[in-house]
Amino acid sequence: MNLTNWGRFVLLAALWGCSFAFIKMSLEAFAPLQLASGRLIVGALVVLGILALKRLTLPSRKLWGHIAVAAVFGNVIPFTLFAIGEQYTTATTAGVIQGATPLITMGVAVLALSEERPSTRKVAGLIGGFIGLIVVVGPWNTDGFGTLGGQLACVGAAASYAVSFVYVRRFIAPHKLPALSVTAAQLGAAAVITVVVTTFMTGWALHGDLTAKPLLALLVLGAASTGIAFALLNRLIADAGPTTASGVNYLVPVFAVIVGVLALGEPLTWNVPVGGVIVIAALALAEGRISALRKRTEAAPPMPVAPARVPEKACP
Length: 316
Prior knowledge:
Layout: H1 3-26, H2 32-53, H3 64-85, H4 91-98, H5 101-112, H6 120-137, H7 148-171, H8 179-201, H9 212-240, H10 242-246, H11 252-264, H12 271-286, H13 289-299
């Protein structure tokens, strides 16, 4: 990647990593469904605006059923579950759990897609990732990190993302549509669905004071961590390829931990970073990144060695 794409890569990881802190701050005024609705409305408007500037069109009507399903599993459920989970656990823990999404996606793909064969490497990575997830959740010590139920809600959100990714790959990706068009349609559909569900299930009465802090957090969460982040992801996929772009998942938990500890003053015990490292290592193993790095290292030409300097004879 060139320097510009590296900048996009790090910015995308930061936006997604910071989203968990924005969720925590937004919950001071908004209920989980209200938060998910507001985030999706703002994010959809941003992406639709970018779509209009690029003069791209939305997908045809025949795909909107599949797009609605992808929206439910890729946005409505995970956005709501992360908000519910962060009512009872820390943003730091939620961000590290999010880092397990690619591993869960791989597991779902192995079960749902015939072309995804369960190789030894993938199985080992999935087992390692599961162990790392248990370490992150730390069921033996929830003091200061909220309830186990809150952490499991975050695991459910990551699993919902995984189902969405596999569904999109199976039913939408074969149509070869511009990624930005699919994203705009998916966020728009998710916003409509979530607004309807919120209206009939919880209503719009806020459960806290609407001060500048939660309102700004919600706006940034929707515009930057949802709308702009998806646009950055699409550009990275186009410029650097999907495999390279997927590597952003390695940095998201890092930013989530840094922001949670420094900005929110959340506690940090050994199990969260250690479990996060295990998850990241397991993901690298399952994706074949470790073996690829080893092959590149072995194939690299040896460094040239300068000839030894023969010392001059001393003068008589």
